[in-house]
Amino acid sequence: MDYTRQTAYSDPGRHLGRLSALPEDVAGIAAAVRNLVVHYRASGIDFPPDRLAEINNRWVERMLDSCHLTGPLDEPLAATDRIVGCCRDFTLLAVSILRARGIPARSRIGFADYLEAGFHGDHVIAEYHDGSRWIATDAQLDPAAGFPVDVADVPLAPGGFRTAAQAWRSIRRGEEDPALFGVGRGSPIGGARLVRQYVLNEVAHRFGDELLLWDIWGDLATAADELGDRPFDAAWEDLPAADAGDVAVIDEIAGLLLAADGGDQSAEGKLASLYASDARIRPGDTVSCHSPSGSRARVDLRRRAVDVF
Protein backbone atom coordinates (compact mmCIF):
# COMPACT_ATOMS: atom_id res chain seq x y z
CA MET A 1 0.00 0.00 0.00
CA ASP A 2 1.18 3.50 -0.81
CA TYR A 3 1.05 5.31 2.53
CA THR A 4 1.73 8.68 0.92
CA ARG A 5 -1.74 8.60 -0.64
CA GLN A 6 -4.74 9.92 1.26
CA THR A 7 -7.57 7.54 2.06
CA ALA A 8 -11.25 8.41 2.12
CA TYR A 9 -10.81 9.09 5.85
CA SER A 10 -7.56 11.08 5.84
CA ASP A 11 -8.35 13.16 2.74
CA PRO A 12 -8.69 16.82 3.84
CA GLY A 13 -10.71 17.64 0.72
CA ARG A 14 -11.42 21.36 0.49
CA HIS A 15 -9.03 22.00 3.41
CA LEU A 16 -5.87 20.77 1.65
CA GLY A 17 -4.52 24.28 1.16
CA ARG A 18 -4.98 25.05 4.85
CA LEU A 19 -3.03 21.92 5.83
CA SER A 20 -0.24 22.83 3.43
CA ALA A 21 0.37 26.03 5.40
CA LEU A 22 1.12 24.12 8.62
CA PRO A 23 4.69 23.29 9.80
CA GLU A 24 6.85 20.96 7.71
CA ASP A 25 8.61 19.07 10.53
CA VAL A 26 6.98 16.19 12.43
CA ALA A 27 7.27 17.88 15.83
CA GLY A 28 5.65 21.01 14.43
CA ILE A 29 2.89 18.96 12.81
CA ALA A 30 2.14 17.22 16.13
CA ALA A 31 2.04 20.58 17.94
CA ALA A 32 -0.36 21.95 15.30
CA VAL A 33 -2.62 18.93 15.78
CA ARG A 34 -2.69 19.45 19.55
CA ASN A 35 -3.78 23.03 18.92
CA LEU A 36 -6.64 21.81 16.72
CA VAL A 37 -8.01 18.82 18.66
CA VAL A 38 -9.04 18.37 22.29
CA HIS A 39 -9.68 14.97 23.87
CA TYR A 40 -13.33 14.55 24.77
CA ARG A 41 -12.50 12.74 28.04
CA ALA A 42 -8.88 13.41 29.03
CA SER A 43 -9.38 17.18 28.82
CA GLY A 44 -11.83 17.12 31.73
CA ILE A 45 -14.10 19.52 29.83
CA ASP A 46 -17.83 18.84 30.02
CA PHE A 47 -18.84 19.41 26.40
CA PRO A 48 -22.52 19.91 25.53
CA PRO A 49 -24.13 17.20 23.36
CA ASP A 50 -23.75 19.08 20.08
CA ARG A 51 -20.02 19.51 20.64
CA LEU A 52 -19.52 15.98 21.97
CA ALA A 53 -21.03 14.67 18.74
CA GLU A 54 -17.86 15.86 16.98
CA ILE A 55 -16.11 12.69 18.15
CA ASN A 56 -18.12 10.82 15.50
CA ASN A 57 -16.70 12.78 12.54
CA ARG A 58 -14.83 9.94 10.86
CA TRP A 59 -13.44 11.91 7.99
CA VAL A 60 -10.72 14.57 8.27
CA GLU A 61 -12.68 16.81 5.91
CA ARG A 62 -15.66 16.76 8.28
CA MET A 63 -13.41 17.20 11.30
CA LEU A 64 -11.99 20.36 9.78
CA ASP A 65 -15.47 21.50 8.76
CA SER A 66 -16.24 21.66 12.50
CA CYS A 67 -13.10 23.68 13.28
CA HIS A 68 -13.81 27.11 14.76
CA LEU A 69 -10.94 28.72 12.86
CA THR A 70 -11.82 30.51 9.66
CA GLY A 71 -8.23 31.64 9.06
CA PRO A 72 -4.90 29.77 9.23
CA LEU A 73 -5.05 26.50 11.14
CA ASP A 74 -2.02 27.36 13.27
CA GLU A 75 -3.73 30.27 15.04
CA PRO A 76 -3.81 29.51 18.80
CA LEU A 77 -7.12 28.03 19.92
CA ALA A 78 -8.59 27.77 23.40
CA ALA A 79 -9.21 24.16 24.42
CA THR A 80 -12.96 24.68 24.38
CA ASP A 81 -12.82 25.86 20.76
CA ARG A 82 -10.84 22.91 19.42
CA ILE A 83 -12.27 19.96 17.51
CA VAL A 84 -13.62 17.47 20.05
CA GLY A 85 -12.03 14.10 19.38
CA CYS A 86 -9.95 11.26 20.76
CA CYS A 87 -6.55 9.65 20.14
CA ARG A 88 -7.72 8.36 16.78
CA ASP A 89 -8.51 11.90 15.65
CA PHE A 90 -5.18 13.39 16.77
CA THR A 91 -3.54 10.55 14.87
CA LEU A 92 -5.60 10.70 11.69
CA LEU A 93 -5.14 14.45 11.38
CA ALA A 94 -1.36 14.06 11.82
CA VAL A 95 -1.36 11.27 9.23
CA SER A 96 -3.33 13.47 6.84
CA ILE A 97 -0.83 16.33 7.17
CA LEU A 98 2.14 13.99 6.72
CA ARG A 99 0.62 12.41 3.62
CA ALA A 100 -0.10 15.88 2.23
CA ARG A 101 3.68 16.40 2.36
CA GLY A 102 4.43 13.14 0.60
CA ILE A 103 5.62 11.42 3.79
CA PRO A 104 4.43 7.80 4.20
CA ALA A 105 2.23 7.68 7.28
CA ARG A 106 -0.34 5.37 8.85
CA SER A 107 -2.23 4.89 12.10
CA ARG A 108 -1.59 2.07 14.57
CA ILE A 109 -4.17 0.73 17.00
CA GLY A 110 -3.25 -0.91 20.26
CA PHE A 111 -2.52 -0.21 23.90
CA ALA A 112 -0.18 2.26 25.59
CA ASP A 113 1.75 1.32 28.73
CA TYR A 114 2.71 4.93 29.47
CA LEU A 115 -0.70 6.51 30.08
CA GLU A 116 -1.63 4.76 33.33
CA ALA A 117 0.84 2.83 35.48
CA GLY A 118 0.19 -0.90 35.52
CA PHE A 119 -2.54 -0.71 32.87
CA HIS A 120 -2.56 -1.06 29.08
CA GLY A 121 -4.88 1.70 27.89
CA ASP A 122 -6.41 1.56 24.43
CA HIS A 123 -4.75 4.09 22.17
CA VAL A 124 -4.05 5.09 18.57
CA ILE A 125 -0.76 6.62 17.44
CA ALA A 126 0.80 7.58 14.12
CA GLU A 127 3.72 6.02 12.28
CA TYR A 128 5.71 7.71 9.56
CA HIS A 129 8.64 6.50 7.47
CA ASP A 130 11.73 8.69 7.54
CA GLY A 131 13.37 6.93 4.59
CA SER A 132 15.06 4.26 6.67
CA ARG A 133 12.53 3.09 9.27
CA TRP A 134 9.02 3.48 10.60
CA ILE A 135 8.85 5.85 13.58
CA ALA A 136 5.88 5.82 15.94
CA THR A 137 4.85 9.21 17.29
CA ASP A 138 2.08 10.12 19.71
CA ALA A 139 0.70 13.39 18.34
CA GLN A 140 -1.79 13.72 21.20
CA LEU A 141 0.84 14.13 23.90
CA ASP A 142 3.19 17.06 24.54
CA PRO A 143 6.80 15.79 24.66
CA ALA A 144 7.48 18.24 27.49
CA ALA A 145 4.83 16.68 29.75
CA GLY A 146 7.23 14.13 31.24
CA PHE A 147 5.88 10.82 30.03
CA PRO A 148 8.08 7.75 30.72
CA VAL A 149 8.71 7.28 26.98
CA ASP A 150 9.80 9.59 24.19
CA VAL A 151 6.38 10.32 22.70
CA ALA A 152 8.08 11.48 19.48
CA ASP A 153 9.66 8.03 19.02
CA VAL A 154 7.52 5.50 20.86
CA PRO A 155 8.83 1.92 21.02
CA LEU A 156 6.35 -0.70 19.82
CA ALA A 157 7.12 -2.91 22.79
CA PRO A 158 6.22 -3.43 26.45
CA GLY A 159 6.63 -0.16 28.30
CA GLY A 160 5.78 1.74 25.15
CA PHE A 161 2.97 1.02 22.72
CA ARG A 162 1.77 -2.52 22.07
CA THR A 163 -0.01 -3.01 18.78
CA ALA A 164 -3.28 -4.91 18.97
CA ALA A 165 -1.52 -7.88 17.38
CA GLN A 166 1.21 -7.82 20.03
CA ALA A 167 -1.38 -7.60 22.79
CA TRP A 168 -3.39 -10.49 21.36
CA ARG A 169 -0.31 -12.70 21.09
CA SER A 170 0.77 -12.00 24.67
CA ILE A 171 -2.72 -12.79 25.97
CA ARG A 172 -2.98 -15.98 23.91
CA ARG A 173 0.38 -17.12 25.30
CA GLY A 174 -0.77 -16.47 28.85
CA GLU A 175 1.89 -13.81 29.33
CA GLU A 176 -0.52 -11.00 30.22
CA ASP A 177 -3.77 -10.63 32.15
CA PRO A 178 -6.43 -9.61 29.60
CA ALA A 179 -8.26 -7.68 32.34
CA LEU A 180 -5.41 -5.13 32.27
CA PHE A 181 -6.19 -4.15 28.66
CA GLY A 182 -9.04 -1.73 28.11
CA VAL A 183 -10.30 1.82 27.77
CA GLY A 184 -9.39 2.57 31.39
CA ARG A 185 -9.45 1.17 34.89
CA GLY A 186 -13.00 0.73 36.07
CA SER A 187 -14.49 0.59 32.60
CA PRO A 188 -16.20 -2.68 31.62
CA ILE A 189 -14.98 -2.28 28.03
CA GLY A 190 -11.76 -4.25 27.85
CA GLY A 191 -10.28 -7.71 28.08
CA ALA A 192 -9.73 -10.24 25.32
CA ARG A 193 -12.98 -9.23 23.57
CA LEU A 194 -11.69 -5.68 23.06
CA VAL A 195 -8.22 -6.81 22.00
CA ARG A 196 -9.80 -9.16 19.46
CA GLN A 197 -11.82 -6.30 17.97
CA TYR A 198 -8.77 -4.06 17.90
CA VAL A 199 -6.84 -6.64 15.86
CA LEU A 200 -9.58 -6.25 13.23
CA ASN A 201 -9.40 -2.46 13.59
CA GLU A 202 -5.63 -2.56 13.24
CA VAL A 203 -5.72 -4.40 9.93
CA ALA A 204 -8.55 -2.16 8.71
CA HIS A 205 -6.48 0.96 9.43
CA ARG A 206 -3.47 -0.62 7.77
CA PHE A 207 -5.40 -0.91 4.52
CA GLY A 208 -7.02 2.49 4.59
CA ASP A 209 -10.27 1.94 6.48
CA GLU A 210 -9.38 4.23 9.38
CA LEU A 211 -12.61 3.79 11.32
CA LEU A 212 -13.62 5.10 14.72
CA LEU A 213 -12.70 2.94 17.68
CA TRP A 214 -16.42 2.47 18.37
CA ASP A 215 -17.28 1.40 14.83
CA ILE A 216 -17.98 -2.34 14.75
CA TRP A 217 -19.11 -4.75 12.06
CA GLY A 218 -19.86 -8.39 11.39
CA ASP A 219 -21.21 -10.71 14.08
CA LEU A 220 -20.24 -8.32 16.89
CA ALA A 221 -22.29 -5.53 15.32
CA THR A 222 -25.28 -7.84 14.87
CA ALA A 223 -25.13 -8.84 18.54
CA ALA A 224 -24.69 -5.22 19.66
CA ASP A 225 -27.66 -4.08 17.59
CA GLU A 226 -29.80 -6.62 19.44
CA LEU A 227 -29.02 -5.10 22.84
CA GLY A 228 -31.94 -2.72 22.62
CA ASP A 229 -31.59 0.59 24.42
CA ARG A 230 -28.99 -0.58 26.92
CA PRO A 231 -25.81 1.52 26.92
CA PHE A 232 -22.97 -0.18 25.12
CA ASP A 233 -20.64 -0.24 28.13
CA ALA A 234 -23.36 -1.69 30.37
CA ALA A 235 -24.03 -4.46 27.87
CA TRP A 236 -20.40 -5.16 27.01
CA GLU A 237 -20.13 -8.35 29.06
CA ASP A 238 -23.26 -9.73 27.38
CA LEU A 239 -21.75 -9.59 23.92
CA PRO A 240 -20.76 -13.03 22.60
CA ALA A 241 -17.25 -14.28 23.18
CA ALA A 242 -15.23 -15.40 20.19
CA ASP A 243 -15.71 -19.02 19.19
CA ALA A 244 -12.87 -21.34 18.16
CA GLY A 245 -13.16 -20.46 14.49
CA ASP A 246 -13.11 -16.75 15.20
CA VAL A 247 -10.09 -17.10 17.49
CA ALA A 248 -8.24 -18.97 14.73
CA VAL A 249 -8.91 -16.11 12.29
CA ILE A 250 -7.65 -13.52 14.79
CA ASP A 251 -4.59 -15.68 15.48
CA GLU A 252 -3.82 -15.75 11.77
CA ILE A 253 -4.32 -12.03 11.25
CA ALA A 254 -2.26 -11.12 14.31
CA GLY A 255 0.54 -13.42 13.18
CA LEU A 256 0.58 -11.84 9.73
CA LEU A 257 0.56 -8.33 11.20
CA LEU A 258 3.52 -9.16 13.41
CA ALA A 259 5.43 -10.76 10.54
CA ALA A 260 4.68 -7.82 8.26
CA ASP A 261 5.90 -5.39 10.92
CA GLY A 262 9.09 -7.43 10.99
CA GLY A 263 9.63 -6.82 7.28
CA ASP A 264 8.13 -10.01 5.84
CA GLN A 265 6.77 -8.88 2.47
CA SER A 266 5.04 -12.21 1.81
CA ALA A 267 3.10 -11.77 5.07
CA GLU A 268 2.16 -8.24 4.02
CA GLY A 269 0.89 -9.59 0.69
CA LYS A 270 -1.08 -12.40 2.29
CA LEU A 271 -2.60 -9.98 4.77
CA ALA A 272 -3.69 -7.68 1.94
CA SER A 273 -5.19 -10.62 0.07
CA LEU A 274 -7.12 -11.78 3.14
CA TYR A 275 -8.41 -8.31 3.82
CA ALA A 276 -9.64 -7.97 0.26
CA SER A 277 -11.32 -11.37 0.14
CA ASP A 278 -12.57 -12.25 3.64
CA ALA A 279 -15.78 -10.47 4.60
CA ARG A 280 -15.27 -11.43 8.25
CA ILE A 281 -12.26 -9.13 8.44
CA ARG A 282 -13.08 -5.98 6.53
CA PRO A 283 -15.94 -3.64 7.48
CA GLY A 284 -17.70 -3.53 4.12
CA ASP A 285 -20.01 -0.64 3.24
CA THR A 286 -21.85 -0.40 6.56
CA VAL A 287 -20.77 -0.29 10.20
CA SER A 288 -22.59 0.00 13.49
CA CYS A 289 -21.45 2.93 15.64
CA HIS A 290 -21.85 2.78 19.44
CA SER A 291 -20.43 6.14 20.46
CA PRO A 292 -19.28 7.32 23.90
CA SER A 293 -21.45 10.36 23.17
CA GLY A 294 -24.41 8.07 23.81
CA SER A 295 -25.60 7.86 20.22
CA ARG A 296 -26.07 4.66 18.25
CA ALA A 297 -26.06 4.73 14.48
CA ARG A 298 -25.82 2.69 11.35
CA VAL A 299 -23.33 4.31 8.99
CA ASP A 300 -23.14 3.91 5.23
CA LEU A 301 -19.44 4.52 4.65
CA ARG A 302 -19.68 4.96 0.90
CA ARG A 303 -22.45 7.56 1.01
CA ARG A 304 -21.25 9.02 4.32
CA ALA A 305 -24.82 8.72 5.55
CA VAL A 306 -25.50 8.33 9.28
CA ASP A 307 -28.80 6.83 10.47
CA VAL A 308 -29.07 7.44 14.22
CA PHE A 309 -31.32 5.06 16.13
Detail the topology: elements first, then pairings:
Blueprint lengths: L15 H5 L5 H11 E3 L9 H4 L7 H6 L17 E3 L1 H14 L4 E12 L2 E11 L4 E4 L23 E3 H9 L8 E2 L8 H16 L8 E2 L1 H8 L6 H4 L8 H18 L3 H13 L8 E5 L5 E5 L4 E4 L1
Parallel strand pairs: 1-2, 4-7
Antiparallel strand pairs: 3-4, 3-6, 4-5, 8-9, 9-10, 10-11
Helix pairs in contact: 2-5, 6-7, 6-10, 7-10, 10-11
Structural class: alpha+beta
Sheet with the most strands, sense and barrel status: 5 strands, mixed
Portion of residues within helices: 25-40%
Helix count, DSSP H or I runs of 4 or more residues: 11
For the record, the count of structural domains works out to 1
Span between N and C termini? 36 Å
| Strand fraction | 15-25%
DSSP strand tally = 11
Low-confidence stretches: none
Order of helices and strands: HHEHHEHEEEEHEHEHHHHEEE
Please characterize this protein's 3D structure.
The protein is of the alpha+beta class. The protein has one domain (13-308). Helix content is 35%, strand content 17%. Strands 3, 4, 5, 6 and 7 form a five-stranded mixed sheet that branches.
In brief:
With 309 residues, the protein is α+β, with helices and mostly antiparallel strands. The protein has helices at 16-20, 26-36, 49-52, 60-65, 87-100, 164-172, 191-206, 218-225, 232-235, 244-261, 265-277; strands at residues 37-39, 83-85, 105-116, 119-129, 134-137, 161-163, 181-182, 215-216, 286-290, 296-300, 305-308.
